[in-house]
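haha ok so turns out i had the wrong file open the whole time. this is the CORRECT one, sorry everyone. sequence first:
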Amino acid sequence: QVQLVESGGGLVQAGGSLRLSCAASGGTFGGYAMGWFRQAPGKEREEPEFVAGITRTGDTYYADSVKGRFIISRVNAKTVDLQMNSLKPEDTAIYYCAAGLQIGFTRPEYPYWGQGTQVTVSS
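then structure:
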């Protein structure tokens, strides 16, 4: 069973950039579709929001709110990154990496999740 560990979160000013990484432990991401989700402050009771996803063959999908600013990529068999540019205060959230057998846009479609990394964008 693959385990996921996110890194790269932090505090950044609006307009800045951050690069999040999701590393595999106990396996590789080669057989999985990968997704990034986020949970904004005050929305802990809601389902996490889909941010970006990449299929096993490299097709990418983005939420409208991040399209043109964020880029998801497979760095290698054990790492998937999320490059976040032109960050806005509304991007502030805990960001989670997730793995599933096929691309999806909701939490239940991904059986495997990381512990999350905090991203805070100041205005």
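The radius of gyration is 13 Å.
again sry for the mixup
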